[in-house]
Amino acid sequence: MTTTAADLAAVAGVLLDFDGPVTPLMPGSEGKQAADDARTAMRREGVEIPHSVASSTDHLAVLRAAPEFGPAVVRAVEDACVAAEIRCARTAVPTAGAHDFLRQTFHDDQRVVIVSNNAAEAIGVYLDRWELNAFVVAAIGRPRYRPDLMKPHRFVVDAALEVLDLDATDTVLVGDTVTDMQVARSVGARAIGYAKRPERSEALAEAGADAVVLAMSELPHPAR
Prior knowledge:
Blueprint: H1 5-9, E1 13-16, H2 30-44, H3 59-65, H4 71-89, H5 98-107, E2 111-115, H6 120-129, E3 138-140, H7 155-164, E4 171-175, H8 178-187, E5 190-194, H9 201-206, E6 211-213
Parallel strand pairs: 1-2, 1-4, 2-3, 4-5, 5-6
């Protein structure tokens, strides 16, 4: 299972996940705080927290559970999630090698679109802080109040392909989750898994990654 520099040179567009490959958006206790914020929003709408997300440290898991309780709950939880993500984006630091990768793909005329289950507003805050907008064609986040359209649904990837005006086969998706690999496979894009921890490599490979790297600096590239 290898993706060579020549393979990456053959693609015209890069679909890049945000939380993980670009920045660890919610390190340490930040993830739990975001999930707590989402649960608080749910309680304010009179909802008893489902057991499935009662102790989760993933705010997006809480958001995925919200539609069961109606549109008002979805709105409240979504707004809390967006606020938490923006708060974290204001202090988030780069994943090692990520910014160099963005600059290199730009140098090699490969266009990058960020495709994320995070809010576009939070991604924008991060890109502005680190002066990265010139290296990214667009940042496509989850559609507001539609958690059902988060990856592995293909909504954000299809939107990115439309922006790039490319066929999926002319792109590679770089992500750190099983859902990233699944959506890449579903649209026909190549897939590179970024394993933040070595033990995640197997799951990414089984989900369909063409290659797995342990650091963003390990991504194969024609300029290297």
